[in-house]
Each structure stands twice: as structure tokens, then as C-alpha cells.
Design a protein that fits this description.
The complex is a heterodimer of chains A (998) and B (88). Chain A has 998 residues and is of the alpha+beta class. Helix content of chain A is 22%, strand content 28%. In chain B, 9% of the residues lie in helices and 38% in strands. The longest helix of chain B is centred in the middle third of the chain and has 8 residues. Classes of the chains: A alpha+beta (998), B mainly beta (88).
Chain lengths: 998, 88
Amino acid sequence: MSQEFRIKEKGYINRNKTINFKFNGKNYTGYEGDTLASALLANGVHLVGRSFKYHRPRGFFAAGVDEPNAKLQVELNGHSEPNVNATEIELVEGISATSQNCWPSVEFDIGAINNLLNKFFPAGFYYKTFMWPKSFWYKIYEPFIRKAAGLGVASIEKDRERYEHKFEYCDLLVTGSGPAGLASAYAAAKSGAKVILAEDKHRFGGSLLMDDVSIDNLSGKDWTDKIVSELKEMPNVTVKNRSQVFGYYDHNMLVMFERTGDHREKKSEFTPRQRLWYIRCKEVILSTGSIERPIVFGNNDTPGVMLSSGAKEYMKVYGVLVGRKPIIFTNNDSAYETAIEFKNNGVEPLILDTRKEQNSDLINEAKNKGIKIKFNHAVIKANGYKKVKSAIIGELSDDKTEYKNTNNVECDCICVSGFWTPSVHLASQSGNKLKFDKEIDSFIPDKSKQNEITVGAANGDFTLKNTLNAGFKAGNEVSKKINNKDVAIQVPNVTEKNHKVHDKFWCSPLPKNLKAKRFVDFQNDVSVTDIEIALREGYRSIEHVKRYTTLGMATDQGRTSNLNGLQLVSNIENKIVPEVGHTTFRPPFTPVTIGTIVGREVGKHFMPTRLTPIHEWHVKNNAVFVDAGAWKRPRYYKIGNETMLDAANREAKNVRDKVGICDVTTLGKIDVKGPDAAEFLNRVYTNAWMKLPVGKARYGVMLREDGMVMDDGTTTRIAENHYHMTTTTAQAANVLSHLEYYLQIIWPELNVNVVSTTEQWAGAALAGPKSRDVLAKLFPNSNVSNETLPFMGYMEANLFGIPARIFRISFSGELAYEINVRSDYGMFMWEKIMEIGKEYGIQPYGTEALSTLRIEMGHVAGPELDGRTIPYDVSLEGMVSKKKDFIGKRSLTKLAFNQQDRQKIVGLIPLDRKTSIPEGSHLVLDKNAKLPNPKLGHVSSSCWSVENNNPFSLAIIKDGKNMIGKKLFAVSPLKNKSIEVEVISSHYVDHEGKRVRS
Amino acid sequence: MLYIKCPYCGMRSQNEFAYGGDASVKRPELNKDVTDKEWDDFVYNRKSLRGKHIELWHHVSGCRQWFKAQRDTATHEIFKTATMNEEI
């Protein structure tokens, strides 16, 4: 029983290449050029899944992106992907697919009990059912909803595939390669414009592959091949198949994904699976075509019911019969082509046309071929559970609200056509407000908001002649705009069959004695009754109806259901469709894999990594790294099986007792140059800068205009008009932008230039009582005594032939220096310091020890300067000049900033001198107080004081220093700790600051 | 993603730029007495206009120049960009 529904010698598949695949564990064969859907249908498989809510059997409904049912879990190349549209994925050797949302199998699904219980699952079921009792929510309702939600299963394994991003610029992007797209791309390309033509399917041509037309005496397919090969020859044209433009964003930025990998049998590890294109184009021509609309009738979701256009595509493109006893149920002429195609393949169709007796080219052709046509008839209900077996049909009364007679007709498929809906998604996303076209009962684009033109069926033009004319004209207009060329193109001769006006019939009335669900939205199991309930319950806005009933949601975004839903709402509400309006079209048009959106930005490419020139040394010496922005900084250097706290304490103690070295390359460095540099710094910093002599450094604090501390650091006057500013690692980029803002916008009269030199200098901090001894040996030719290089002094020196800068500044509170050399010499400097420092007991220290040292000293850093503290809050009053103006000064006079009980910095120690206080703990007076327990402040930084050998923390607390001596509780619900603490001064070590000056 | 004309570099994608807020705000001069109201208007109070808005942008991943742009906050249409010393 192999491919028994395959027609001999029809279609564009490659019959020389058989492909093996699996569906629900069974082996099948298809041909190269098949989709999973066409191959399954060739094998007579219609039942592919179970519906979302009622678990009803569902089959293929369409042949392309409009498919609402055939979403499969697909295994390919070792990965598993949910919700893959079977009508879009190409058949390749070894592909394995399974049905979703069914258990134990698609043939026998326990969940189908929901169908019998459907009275209990009306619209808004979730909102009505899971309301009370409240205690049921976490244990019963939430897990239940979670289990019922979604269709497929997302893989929890790492995606091993490769995805790429590509940025492209062009004059014109044409979306869709049907007649409109081909004509416009061709016309624009001929004038020399840079054109990208994108087609979502594997084959170009759109409707030209299926419709019985001729262009310049060529069949639609042959004309397509001719135009496409000509376009491919042109150097200014990029032609892309398997490429779906799914989003239209601001300023003519469109986003497209290209399926580059899954259809290939063998690919290298560098072949991406999918590629995301960001396309910035001057002009866009939207030739996205149209999607056939179903007619709603009883049990219209039974497998075997499908769009007439889908049935035609399966026959013409894939050589597959979707049935041998078809009923064609239509309100227009286009379905006649499907019937004729059936007839041409030896199958006897029955046409039910809701219109009165008609004549047109197509209808007459069908009549002449002896096809049975019943005018004024409709399908009322399909019979059959897992496949259509028969249909109850009826002759319509004059007003089409009831039937004159009904009878049962055997059939194995029902091909339905309720006319065509232009695909206006991209046009709408571009900002185009749509308008309702009464002739075709659909929305079409109105005025363009961006450089966009919609042509062809997407614009409501359903004849080939008009479509081609519009396409050539649009292409020509675009090229006139782009390069002023008016290339006259001979519009080809077209022969096509004329169509009669369609009927507005869209839903078969259900006689009282018949019970059946009539589905408007297949993917979400939304029936006519559900929408009626929503309206009865008072929902009016179409957006609300959508959310309450889930009409038009999920992966197919209501491509086949939206307009019928609107029609139903407008009928009940007695409004016309344009008054009801439509829901918003949002990107993506079709589902996009997360991998494609992420692209190559995974793993180490997730964000850039900044490494200091000394990084290799840190690695070799067992550094454990911490992320500081994009930088990797050594957190501590592990010896043996030390814990982090052991290591940090050892490193910090070594600085206090002997000498340590820390890689400070990551600090932000900014060169400030120009005759007005001093004046500029004087305005930027809170303290005075006019009198800083050359060769001296000064600590500075800068504020935002709202008075909050923005950053701190030292700035050194290198030369008369040259300053070297340092910032914290975290704020380096912000500070540069901040300085540029003031120089370029507020004070352009200042003659100052700023530039980042962070990358240019490698820095090492040498700290501890022995640091001067090490320094003296490093620079034997320079005098580094306390007299010639005092605290806050600066000198340039020669490090074994390499120019170096020595700053006598200290973050640790010890006698300390920072040495800078050109980045290339960073490693040399570091190794030299380690070598020479050996005899003094030098050890490297990481950021943990660095924090310990500065916390003990009461030096503030990021956790204290968190954007909520002004200088007065963090013991920086002394830094604020009373005499001059500076950025943010006026804010400091604000009342709230001068309240006595404002939260200010203090120190904390635990009463037991043992228990570490978690950072982030809240400080309260009484841990047993009635809730809400008033919060006095919070713990900002914590360390183990190596000087006093007990825990110590900095805290920001109400009433600040007045609280010193008080006993409080530090409460951390996160760590489940409540610690009794005493408030002390924030300067825990070396109150007078003697060491830095020693 | 917006497509923004840097007056120095030409058309570039939005991800090269940082937004800098309302360009019509004037910082009070240094060393001048200003009322609380004037200062609050400068630091905090913004109109959050719907429609044409003159605003600052910073070409951070490019020439690092600040410039002015006239943009419609509802449609994102950018009518004009100009250097800081040009009128818009």
C-alpha cells in the first residue's frame, strides 16, 4: 500500500528519487519535492492530529502557511521540534514526525472525552472554572492548565544547529513570487535597481503553478521559470526561495527567515539551519497573494474536509489525490478548477454551488466535461469521525436560511471554497490602515504609511491580467523613484477564464434537528456557539472577543478564521464588518524558531568578552573569574582546597601585612585634554580642580543633575592641559557619554577633548606596607621616597626600558601605587612585579579581597553609589565645594536631601562577632515587631574584616551616625537569617588614614 | 529598528545610537540663582509629547557626536536631523 493516491506523471516532484520517512512510528515513502503533508496524503493519511481543546481528530486542511491543523513534532538531524507545519516542511530522508496533543495515540486519544463533555468547555471556560476556592490554585488548577496548554513539546536539549543573521540593503524588496511579485521584480530589475525577490515556498510562481492560464503562450509554470531564470542572471537581483518575510518594522526594515538547512540531506557543520535576514530597503512591493476562506458547516473539522485550493495544489504540484469521491462546496468559480482537475485525473466530483444557476467560462467547461453540479446547494454537516464518510447536503431556500430538502451523499473528501482573503498582514504591520472592500468581503490595504505598495491578490485583484499589469506598473514606478529610469516593459498577452461574481454565503445554517459543532477557528477549537456565547456575555470589541474565545490566536494567527469570525460577530451585532473592525496583525507572520532569532549569539558569543593583557597569567595561577560587565576579572586565586572566603582573607591579609598586586586594567580611563580642561573638571566634579598642580592626583566625585552620585575616581594632571581621569569599571562608558554630553551640548565653548584610553593602558595596583620596597626595586633609577612621591603624587618612570606611569593612590587604604604601562607590556609589567616582589611575600589579590580591603576602610563603591545616594549620604560631605557650581549642585539644596533622618552610611558588626551579615539584609529595631515592621535601612556591603577578624558590613541607615552604638537586627528572609548587630562607624580600620600617607 | 541619519556619518541603524531625551530643555546657567520650579523643570519635568518632538541622539557606536532629531513619537517618522549648532 504505497502512495496509492499518487497520480501518474503529474506534479513537479522528482519521481526518480524515493524518500523514506516515518509518521507515528510507521514507515512511509514519498518523493523528492514533496512536503511532509503531500507525502502523507499520497499514502492516504488524513488523520494527523488532535484538536487543542476537544481532542477531535483533525486532518490536513490546506497546502501552505494557511494550514491550521497539521502541526507535528518533527525529529530531524537529532533534534526535536514542536509545532512544525507539515504543509511547509520538505520531505528529506530520515525525517520522523509524530502527532501532537494526543495520548496514547492519534487514533485513540483519551483526551477526546473532552468532546463529549463539550458543554463544560464553553468560551471563557478557564475564566469561569478556575476561580474558587483560592487554595486550589497552586496545587490543582495551575498544574492542570499547564498540562493542557500548548501542543507539542519543546526540546530541553541544547540546540546543536547553527543559525545565522544577515544584514542586507536594497532598493526594492518584493515579497512573494506569484504573478504580481514576478512582474514587479522584473520591471524594477530591468531598470538596474537592486532587487531582492523572496518566496516562502520551495517553488517560485505562487498561483501560476496551479491556475489554468497562459502568458505569452506559455503555461504559468513555464513563464515563471523563464522570468526567474532571467532574474537570477541579473547581477542586481537576489532571488530567494524558502524565505518568509515575517515582519515589517519601522523605516522599511523587514525581517525574513530563510530555511537553509533542513531540506539538505548532507550538509557541513557550517551550513546554517536557518538564516535571519534584516533587510533595509528603499521600497517594498507586497505581493503576498491571498488565502482561501472556508465556508462554515457542521463538523467542518472532520479529516477529509479541506480548502479547495489545497486539494488543487496537491494534485497539480505534488500529483496527489486527496480523495476519490470528492464534494466541491463553493460560493465562487475558483473551486471549479479543482473539480475540473479531479475530473482530468479520472475522478468524478460533485459540485455544490451556493449560487443560483450560473454561466461562466469555468462553469461551462465543468458542465461540458460532464461534472455533476448542484446549484443552490450547501453542505450542512459532514459525517464520519476520523475521516469524512458522507455529507448531509441541502437545497437552500430563497433567503438561504433554511433548506427545501436534505439528503445524505457519500464522499471521502469535501473541498470547500468561500472565496479569497487578501494576505494583508505585512501591509498592516507597516502601519497601513486597512479598508474594507465590499466587493470581496475583505480588508485590503489603504494609504501607505511607509514606502510600500501592495499589488495583486493581496490588494484584492483576482484576475491575472490586472495582477500582471499592476505588478509591471508598480515595478516601473519604483524604478522611476529609485534611479529615474522609465523602462517600458511589454506587458505580456494573457489568456485566463473569466469568473462570475461570488456569493456572500459563508456559513451553512444548522436545521433544528441536527446537532454538530461548526468550527470557525480550527487551531483553537472555536465554534460558532463559542462566539455567540462571548457576545451574549457582553463582549463587544473584536479584540476582547478574540481573547475571550481565543479566536484567531496561536501559530496560524487565524489565517483561515479571522474573516468568518468577523462575519459572525457582525451578523449577531447587526453591524457591517468594517464597523466591527479587525484585530491587530502582529509579527511574525509565521512562527520563527527561537534559534533563528538568537542566531550566532549563543555561548561565548552571547556577549563580547573583554580580557586584560594579564588574563593568561591569571588563568595559569588558578584564578576564579567573575564577570564585571563584559570584563573577566580574577575574583580570587585558589590555593589547594581553599574556599572563596579563605582565599579572599588570605589575599587581603597579605596586603595588610606585606604587599599584594591586583589587576586594575578594567578601570575606566579617559584622557581629558585642552586649555579648558581644568575648568571642565571643576564643573564635572563636586570638589575644586583649578589649583591641582601638574604631577598630582586628586580624588573626585561626580553627580548627576538630580544630585545622586554618578561615579568616583582619581584624576591626575599629567601635563599643563592634559588630565588622566579614572572611572569605576562599571561606569566607564556612561561617564564618557556624560562628559561628551556636557562638552558638545551644554558648554560647547569649552576647548576640551575627551577620549577613552581604557584599552590603551594596562594597570597594576601594588598595595601594602612593603609596596614601596617593591617599587624601589622596580624603578631603581627613580626616587620613589615618600618625599618625592607622596600620597596623591604622580611620576613617569622607566620600567626596564618601558615607559610607565606611577600614581600613588590607594583603594585598599594601605600605602599603595598604581602602575600603568602600554597594554602590550601589561604582562611584562605584571611578571616583573611578581618576580621582584617575591622576596617581600607578594601575592596577587582578586576582587573579593579588593572589596574586603575597601569595605574595612569604609570606602564606598557600587553598592553604596546605587543611584539613590547623594554625597552627604555616603560620608563624602568633605568632597562638596561650597564655593563653586558643578553638575547637580542645585539639587543638593532640596529639602528632602537635607532632612536630619535621611538614610546615611554606617558600619555594622554582629554582636556575636561570628555571623556574617548577608548583603541586602533589612535593618529593623525589633525583629519580633508587628508587621509591617518599619525598615530603618539596608546592608550594602559585607566582608570578613581581616584586620579585626570578625564580620563587618556597611549599611545605609536612617539617621546615619546618630545611630552609632545602637543594637539592631539585620533580617534576611532570603537567607533565613536574623542577626543582632551593633551600629559603628563606617571607618573600621585606620580612622585617621595614616597608612596611605606613610 | 529606526534608520537614523547621523549628520556626520549618514544613514545608520538605530542600534548604533543612544537616545538622549528632549532637546528643547535648556540647562540653567552655572552660578545663577534658580527657583526650585525652574530647576525641577530642567531635571524632572518632561511633556512626553505625542507627535513631533525634537530630541537628542548620541552616535555612541560611531562618531560619538550628540545631535538633534525631529521625530514623530507616534509614527517614528524622522523628519530631520541636525548638528547641535544647527537650527531644526
